[in-house]
Amino acid sequence: MSAEHIQQLNKIANSRSSLQKMLRIAEEFCEIVDISINAEKSQVLHICPKKDEELLPIQVKDQQVMPVKKSMPIRYLGVWLTQSGSKSFQKNLIIEKVKNVCRILKWQRATDKLVRYILNHVTFPQIEYLLKDMVLSESVCNTVNSTVLQFFKNKVGFARSAMNSIFFMSGGYKLFNIQNRQIQMHGVNWLKRVNADNDVGLSTRIRLQQYQNATWHHKSVLNSITVVNTKMGHNLTGDILGMLKLIDFKFHICTTLPGSLTFPSGGFIPIAECKETKWFKKYRQSLKNRRIMFFDQLFNIDFSTFLHWPHLLTFIKGVTRGAIPGWYNDLEALHNTPTIQNKLIGMKEFHNSINPFIDMYSPFKTKDGVWYSQKDKGQYNIGKLTKERSLEDVLVDDYIAQHFVQVSRGLEPTSIVKPCEKCPININTQGNDPRCLIAIDKHESIQIPVKKSKNSTSNTRHNQMEKRIVMPVKDIRKMHQIINEVRKVDTPYNNGIIDEDIDFEATTLVDFQRKFLESKFVTEKVTVNKLIEITSQLRHLNNITVYTDGSCKDFDGQYGMGLGWIIPESMNSIENDIKFKCYADHFPSSTKAELLAIITALAVAPVGSVVNVFTDSQNAINIVEEIVSNRDRDIQWTKGKNIISRNAILHMIKDLDLTVQCHKVKAHSNDKYNEEADSLARITWNEIFSGERIQVNIQAFNTPMIIPLWRGLALDVSIKDTLQSINEHTWTQKWLNQNRIKWWITKDKARKIHWKFTAKSVHPSKITTFKSDFKESKFRQFSLKLLNDELPTMNNLHKRKPWIYQSDKCPFCNAEKEDNIHVFTCQSFTDENPFKDLKEKFIRMTHFEANKVKPTLVLSKTRERLQTVTENWENQKATAMEYSWITLPDIIAGLVPISFVTACKDLTGDSTLGAKVVIKSIYAFKKHLFGIWKQRCERLILWEKSKNITTNDKRSNKLKVVSDNSLTVIEREIAFDDITGAPLHNASVVATPVSRQRYSYILNEASLNARNFGWLVTPVQGATMSRAVN
Predict the structure, then answer these.
(1) Domains within the chain, CATH numbers bracketed
(2) What is the distance between the alpha carbons of residues 742 and 389, in angstroms, rounded to a whole number?
(3) pTM given for the model
(4) Do residues 167 and 121 touch, judged by C-beta distance below 8 A?
(5) Among 599, 622, 824, 920, which is most exposed with the fewest C-beta within 10 angstroms?
(6) Phi-psi region for residue 923, left (φ > 0), alpha (ψ -120 to 50) or beta?
(7) Which residues pair with residue 451 across a beta bridge?
């Protein structure tokens, strides 16, 4: 039997020798099972190679495999890695994948839905997998998106200049945007990883801490807007946080899992807030190297003096040699300004007059050693820390130091120190050791800077290399003085008399309950007092029955939630019924209101009790039962709704050790207590603003570690749904803010539009379904072009090719600009009012659809109601679209007013039937408009041929002078009524291809304009047209 080769064998080791050992073990295993490693296909990648190992080969079987070059990518688990960390190959691969798909689909006959499906659900998943370990920059995202858009616009028949938002927003084609997709994918995955209680979570939090360190900021990188422009790809966590912060995401830290985020704090004046952003970015790395973050660190022990650079070096880390950095000079000049001087008083009060950043206890080692000063019996002893770990009679809390004395000049100590020659405080008992050793108390001593220097702080022996104290001696004495003053502060003793009448047990219980409720809820004090009073009434029970209910109501766009519950006295051992009601906001829904009612009811239950919850919400019961059955499993913020409420129920059950049992009550079944709970939960308009409000306090949670916030609001839905919703609304807002849209869809008008049905009227079937044909694609294309003024009207043609279409006026009436409304309201071929005609057709179509779904409608009343709704629609100017009311041009463009939807629902007496009437009637009206548009296009083709405008001219960007000659030879496949007298739109003639039937006529403008289209004028048989338009 021949040995088979292993196709995939991935080995990771921290050194070359370890990898070689692993390969030997793998080879031994392969021999046992009769398989082998294909060394010819093996590749070695050094992530952080040593210089002497960079080009050393790895022995695989009988062959040597050389490490790949720094820039050469190799594939590992579907992504591509390089020694240098470059992702250029992966980026180029993504761009090439997109271009390749577009090249293949370009020449395929496919509907818009099919092309969209291939892009969104075949191509993008492949791209997203390549994004697992990287984030695309904005420029690369723009390249990918522009490639997709350019191809898709061409495929579905839109101009290259069409608004991008049409194709990305949910009401349009709903194409995936690579920038939105990577934010959604990375946001969900990162939150899942960072909250994981395993090695993946720990490593993610380590990366997060590295990013926090890189920012060198006094605020958490999770809940601040600080973004560090790290090199793309060097910290994936930082890249993801940067993207999320751009869309106003922050994160709240709940607990302290291993590896949780830490950041410097404790200062009063952060340097980042004292200087401009540009300055801080310039010196960020230097300040980080020196461990300087607060202005407080630059002052002496009592904030009276700005530290000199040599003195400052003893308290900060980093290189001690070299020139004084520029940031120090800038901050030294800044400290004399009124801004900092005014803050010094607050700084002293904040720190109680002692600078905590002058580390007097933690040793800082330099090449000259660690030095301490200790005051003992009025004397200042200087000592250099030695290596001796212990000596006889030395306490554990003492350092062992070599004693030095200060050289005196005129009875005054100087900065120069020299070794002591065994004074009385010497504890060194070894006779052969000449050093004088002393014990330094760790809590009574302070570290001082001592080094060899020629510069003296006491004007002694200048220009001589001596061991000197490089800080003023008076500052050392001041430090000891402050320490002694602090230690003299005694806690006063209270000799108060104990009141024997105080019930300490009850007082302690109330305090505990208040603390518990205030930690769980964010609400007013009066609400907490109510809950405490209820808790006191129930503390003797171990089994409670409660009826809960919640409500959510929409008051013209202003939502409010009410919650209430009742504990019946007949079912519990209490004197009277206990009732509670409150109100809530944020993420309104009836289910959330029901859950909040249950949460507040559980909060008042005694510890260890059984709670029977009766509710008419089956959804709330399912959620609670799911939580109870999985109480040992944490609820994550990556999927689902009502996440805060679900977490609150879980924590409430765990904290109070409750047993919760839910019971279903049929709604409105004349159950006394359920009706009472329903009455308590009802909410009115005034109570939205004036009622007592309550919400869950997310700071009471200890899991998960990090909770997402959007604009300061804790999310009650999954971050995936939130990001998807943000992306959809972002593109919708971009669409509404386009100049061609916002001039006629004002804010007031937008409130009168039913956007759900407006979007539905564009699509005969959902854009995400598999049902698709070319007829539907054409209808969708027409609807979107009509809504967005993208139809090839003369107005748009003149903008795109002014050298061919020299005017934006209608070529048939030559009176008004031809836009997407004038196309359907041109009066050049009729004596009737086209607005009135279109309105009547719309009413008849709506009437017809209403009678189909409900034949029992009274015809006169139905027509009267529709006339009332459409009475203001007869407007003969498209410019009226810019006003706040709905007009017929708005209906033609594709808007569906709320008043029309309400009228249809009232006519049918059913919301579902009313919605069906709305959609069917809008579809029928758009089909009628589509027919008018096709006929207009036929007329324009004739006009173009009369002007000698060819297809090549329209495709070319070369300038062409169009003749204004009214007599033009054109070729036409259809006979004209003023020449032949035959009826128009003969089926046999229209069906004949252009290539088979060509006729030449000499035709003037009048006869061209007088062509009969049936829907405008009635033809006169056997004669020319009775009316010509000038």
Answers:
(1) 4-67 (no CATH), 88-176 (no CATH), 271-350 (no CATH), 371-488 (no CATH), 504-704 (3.30.420.10)
(2) 79
(3) 0.76
(4) no
(5) 622
(6) alpha
(7) 468
